[in-house]
Amino acid sequence: MLDVKQQALLSRKIAELPLKISSTHLEELILRLYKELDMAGISFKPGTYLSDGWGCPDRVPVIGIPFFLADSQLTDLKAQLTGSGIDDDDTIMQLLRHEAGHAFNYAHCLFDEPEWRELFGQFSLPYIEDYKVDPYSTRFVHHLPGCYAQRHPDDDFAETFAVWLTPCSDWRKRYAGSLALSKLLYVEKMAAVHGRKSPVVIGGKLDVPAEEMQMTLAEWCMAPQKYPGFSVIDLKL
């Protein structure tokens, strides 16, 4: 049963909520990501903003993060309404690393390179929601649930980057003898080549920033949304 304060919160437009990343636990996790990038030899630190879900805008090296993660009250309320539970820090870090892979790809336009296309496929391929999955394939890394690397070449790279970036992932041993290893080695090579360079692409148009979301919190919670690798109704990538 929702209390009066929660009911009032649900009636508010998301754009009107006093949301920020600064001085929150979410900021601490973003700073952890930045530290991991620096330790991996990558100076580029993708900017972040609050949005309707996880995702980098098309070829824009900026990470969109679900707005409710910036406020524990909103996170608890969303979990209460949807019954989906609350993402722990490990899950949020997995998603941040995945999005950092997209951002690194876009920042240096790696998807235009012949070797990238040879390893991962055509960046221009359309996204398919009901993508076919081979859970036993050795061509792809396993990071987010649902064999998410198999969704699209862009996600294949992002997932490979995430595995490579994850501390103590022991990816060389884990993927030894697999086709996925060549992709991981490519990520390592690109980090060595571009890691200390300034990005070629810096900014661009953001995708659904929270301050432009005119729907109420209640309307957003009821809308069907998607989350990478999960079959739930409450999140989106």
Description:
Helix content is 41%, strand content 4%. The model is unreliable at 226-237 (pLDDT under 50). The protein has one domain (4-222). A two-stranded parallel ribbon has the order 1-2. By secondary structure, it is mainly α. The protein has 9 helices and 2 strands, in the order H-H-E-E-H-H-H-H-H-H-H. Helix 2 crosses helix 4 and helix 4 (89-107) packs across helix 6 (153-165). 37% of the residues are buried.
- In total, the number of domains comes to 1
Question: pLDDT below 50 for ≥5 consecutive residues: which ranges?
Answer: 226-237
Strand order of the largest sheet: 1-2
**SSE string, helix = H, strand = E?**
HHEEHHHHHHH
Gyration radius, to the nearest Å?
18 Å
List keywords for this structure.
globular; mainly alpha; 237 residues; two-stranded parallel sheet; 2 strands
Ordered list of secondary-structure elements with their pairings:
Elements: H1 4-10, H2 25-39, E1 47-51, E2 62-66, H3 72-82, H4 89-107, H5 114-120, H6 153-165, H7 171-174, H8 180-194, H9 217-222
Parallel strand pairs: 1-2
Helix pairs in contact: 2-4, 4-6, 6-8
Question: Summary?
Answer:
This protein has 237 residues and is mainly α.
